[in-house]
Amino acid sequence: MNPWRSVWNHNRGKVLTAAGLIILVFVAYARNPQIVEAVLASSLRQSIPLVLGAMCGLIGERSGIINIGIEGQMLLAAFVAFLVNVHTGSLLLATVAGVLVGALLGLFLAFMSVTLRIDQIIGGTVINMLAFGLTGYFYQVGLVTKGKFTPIAIPVLEKIPVLGAMFFRNPPLTYLTLLLIFVVQFLLFFTPWGLRTRAVGEHPRAADTVGIDVYKMRYMNVTLAGMLAGLAGAYLTLEAVGSFERAMTNGRGFVALAVMIFGRWNPILSWGAALLFGFATALQTQLQFMRAVQIPHQFIGMLPYLLTIVVLAGVGGRTRPPAAVGQPYVKE
Amino acid sequence: MRSVILSVTAVLLALLIGAGILVLSGASPVAAYTALIHGAFGDAQAWQRTLEKATPLVFSGLAVAFAFKAGLFNIGAQGQLLVGAIIAAAVGFGVEGLPAWIHAPLALLAGAAAGAALAAVAGALKVYTGAHEVITTIMLNYIAINLTDYLADGPWKDTSPGNIVARTPHILDTAALPTWGPVPSGFILAVLLAAVIYWLLWKTTFGFEIRTVGQNRHAARYAGMRVARTVILTMVISGLFAGLGGAVETQGVVGRYQPGFNVGLGFEGITIALLAKTHPFGVIPAALLVGAMKAGSSQMQFVADVPKEIIDVIQALILFFIAAEFLLRRLLRLRAEAGEEQLVLSTGWGSGE
Questions:
Q1: Do A112 and B138 touch (CB under 8 A)?
Q2: Residue B353 has what pLDDT?
Q3: In chain B, is it the N or the C terminus that has fewer CB atoms within a 10 Å radius of its CB?
Q4: A169 in helix, strand or coil?
């Protein structure tokens, strides 16, 4: 079946909600364009690491591997990208280093879950603790980055009202992520690799029978997916913040898993979910900034986490993860 | 016996790789480990430090291990410990005029109840909505961090002159837990609790239910056990232990709630629970080991100039080698013992079952 069709059939409610939100944005824009543009641009920025993490998670789960180590992959990648930037001054090299670290930790997760058959949740926890420990050990106070990615406005397109400010005045890693969302969507649903990946995650025995190497697919996919988490880490230090702090990922790797579930293990839908999370954070920050509401900042800080719980509770029973997720595959 | 060999091997391998990292970063592992051991066991004061550090770890280790028995992964011990610590502090400084034999236990119970309440949320969400406890408990951790920061910097802030940091007032003397020689009374409480848990898990029907649910949820349901009730109760009891650990830390060591004083205690519970092979009596030596590393780490940093975060790396490596039983068994040529329980946490991921 055409996957676009199936997205529509299963998600009418969400699509209609999104349409409603978009109309609301236009009404608000008519009243106060600057603030609306600021909130939307901030929503997109907040959504970037979440959608990258969610795609890392969903490629893994589509191949049958639960990845709760995304937080650690992001953190260590953010740190190494930061170090490379400090020592070489090159943003490009730093990004590549971050992506490679993500891939390396992905490979480590694959080794633990495929070869050693460690329970995948424990495996992810090992990665998180290792990343936390290593970044803490090697972190030195006082290091400063040599610059960060700056926005590149795309001529003509940036002039479009609302959308121009949101999509066409961004730094390079944001454009790259937007592109990747569609690339991963295409790869997963329209290529032989995608079909094999999904087969391995749904019914590895059947996939094995028709000649797909389950171990190889899982190793390859979890490693490739790790690159996305690595990119999210690089985004945090090189584009969003411009420096590194201990535990700076702040739970984004876990929130990304909720985004993945809310987005039904589908890249484009996950992006929609990530935007919703980003929008909630951006709106709250804006309200706080305008002093429209008087809430202690700690309660604002709780918001994405509360939203994650609500989302998980709301969709938990009604979504279906890939059938073989979490189970080690043993060849006969 | 074999599981002890496996655990000891895991610790030794982790220390070995930790030494490798030390060499790579230009430090001397011999100097670092010597300072670490000296700082943990060198004199009576060092012993007291080790026991103090180990006390909350026994509680959080028991919390995680107990939940493991029902196949639940309580990563939220950290958050439960924080709310336990701050509520115990609130009762400790806020309730006046009680004799010590009522005040101290009251504060302990309040802290335990707070931890249990937070864990109950995760248990109920799992049972009624299918939201997996790994994510919900982590989210609750962040919520607990924000909540306790708010309380310690807002309504419950220490307003004594000169104080500018976020912290609660010092607890009253009647709420403080005594230390006998080098042994904190909280440690004795922790050991007693381990015995109670052993009894609960292996000598009662409820314990049998918990273990059955952990081994095979479907079989438990088929046998007529109330799985939903068992899951929620297990989370509640697990949160109770974690909250109690926070309360003991407040009343026995720190004397007040101050953000940043309890960082990591809940996560270390995971390493400890697995190092103990989820057995309540194993938790005590495992917590002593991690407590000793924490107690000695300051001296290591001071004497050998090694950042104390290296012990976080070593702990992660311990966790890895413990989990990689497959690898260790091959290395040591050990076979699995008959009737050994397998720890499976990834069932029910993303859905109710």
A1: no
A2: 40
A3: N
A4: strand
Among the partner-chain residues B309, B316, B346, the one whose CB lies closest to the CB of A126 is B316
Tell me which amino acid residue B247 is.
Answer: A
Angle, helix A172-190 to helix A192-202, in steps of 10 degrees: 70
Tokens for B340?
Answer: 């050994």
Q: Is the reported ipTM for this assembly greater than 0.90? A: no
> How far is Cα A268 from Cα A75, in angstroms, rounded to an integer?
24
In the stretch 291-350 of chain B, residues with CB closer than 8 A to chain A read 307, 309-317, 319-320, 323-324, 326-327, 343-347, 349-350
Q: How does pLDDT run across B330-349, given as a tens digit for each residue?
A: 777 776 665 555 666 766 66
> Which H or E run includes B180?
strand B179-180
Summarize pLDDT for B157-196 with one digit per residue, the tens. Answer: 998 888 888 899 999 999 999 888 888 999 999 999 999 9
Of the options 1.10.1760, 1.25.40, 3.90.700, 1.10.3470, the CATH number for the domain spanning A32-318: 1.10.3470
Domain ranges of chain B: 56-291
The pLDDT of residue A282:
85
- List the one residue out of A101, A113, A43, A94 whose CA is nearest residue A72: A101
Beta bridge pairs of residue A153? A169
Q: Quick one: which H or E segment has residue A117?
A: none
Q: Where are the domains of chain A?
A: 32-318
Look at residue B352 in the predicted model and tell me its pLDDT.
40
B183-184 and A169-170 beta bridge pairing: unpaired
